[in-house]
Design goal:
alpha+beta, 4 helices
Length: 106
């Protein structure tokens, strides 16, 4: 997800310091959520072996389902970012999400 490991002395107030038996051993700097989404999209492209925009509609729908499960759409501009990566409109992403949610309700 793009986290960075640091010495505890380099930790900022938003970093996570890990303590082992009372001793600070390392710090982890978590990326901003929007950066994490970029990492997730890049990993998905590697997994599929092609740009996400080149995938067929059914595969794009499964990508949207997976991204929703990972919280991608809770990130500011998440829908726009995913739409751009998939080469579809925001409206299409919302349709994929609505279709999935409707199927869950049945």
């Amino acid at each position: 997800m793009g986290a960075e490991v640091l010495a505890p002395s380099q930790a900022g107030r938003d970093d996570v310091v890990l303590v082992w038996e009372g001793v600070e051993v390392l710090a982890v700097r978590l990326p901003q959520l929007s950066e994490s989404l970029d990492h997730i999209l890049a990993a998905m492209e590697r997994r599929h072996g092609m740009p996400l925009s080149a995938l067929d509609r059914k595969t794009k729908q499964s990508v949207v389902r997976l991204l929703e499960a990972r919280g991608a759409f809770s990130v500011r501009h998440g829908v726009e970012t995913v739409a751009g990566a998939l080469g579809v409109s925001r409206f299409t992403v919302y349709n994929y999400l609505n279709r999935e949610n409707a199927a869950k309700g049945e």
